[in-house]
Specification:
Elements (H helix, E strand, L loop, with lengths): L9 H13 L3 H15 L4 H18 L12
Helix pairs in contact: 2-3
């Protein structure tokens, strides 16, 4: 998650979430991650996890993976 302590402006946080949701390639997520670090400094663990999830989602889109299951039952 993009914490209010990391990105203080609510409108900007919403915009960043929307940009992450639209990222269709891993390079798009990397560019956003670089921008976040440039603007706000090193991301906290919650933001790192969010970016990792976005990278995985973008990679699945690139590879045309429709569903990815994880955990003990997958």
């Amino acid at each position: 998650a993009l914490d209010a302590d990391y990105v203080p402006e609510p409108a900007l946080r919403i915009n960043l979430y929307a940009r992450l949701a639209r990222a269709s390639e891993p390079a798009d997520v990397e560019a956003l991650a670089d921008e976040l670090e440039d603007r706000f400094g090193p991301p906290p663990p919650e933001a790192v996890a969010l970016l990792a999830h976005a990278r995985l989602r973008a990679l699945c889109r690139t590879l045309r993976v429709a569903r990815l299951d994880g955990g003990p039952q997958a």
